[in-house]
Amino acid sequence: PGFGQGAEGYAKRFGASYLDTADGNLWGNAILPVILKEDPRYFRMGTGSFKHRFLYSASTTVWCKRDDGRWGPNYANVLGNFISGGISNAYYPAADRGIEQTFDGAITVTAEGAIGAEFVEFWPDISRHLFKKHYAAQQGK
Question: What's this model's pTM, rounded to 2 decimal places?
Answer without folding.
Answer: 0.81
